[in-house]
Design goal:
By secondary structure, this protein is mainly α. It has 8 helices and 3 strands. The protein folds into 2 domains: 86 residues, 3-Layer(aba) Sandwich (Rossmann fold); 62 residues, no CATH class.
Length: 149
Amino acid sequence: MKDHAADILAIIRNLDIDNVVLVGLSMVAQLIAGLGNLGGLRGLILISLAPLTPLCLPEDMREQQIHANDDETSAEFVARNVLTAAPHSDSVMVSLVSDMLRGNQDARAAWPSYGMAEDISAAASAIACPVLVVAIANDKVEPLERVQK
């Protein structure tokens, strides 16, 4: 996560952006904000944020997540049963599955392989800018109760 955060910081600095509101779905945005290395950070918007402390899954569940986007069948299962609370049309599913499979396999496997084991609670505790947390009531991956905690 720290390497990913460093990459994003480098991009922001190279673009000479000095007035920033970070929007993130991940621990990376929290890490960037908490490390205090981004001058001009005005706020942070977190959408269905991941837990700040290590998430330990049973081995079979972790393996399932590592391979969730290996092929069209597994990606469609995840799209229909994990990532969405309401049914979507076939055309939306085709587009979503295509997007899910577009990324690099190593990148798709990073979160369940090692990313979820990281602890960024110290950095998150140091966030000094205004924060808005957006949570989805029916989120199956990050339930509202866990997000509130």
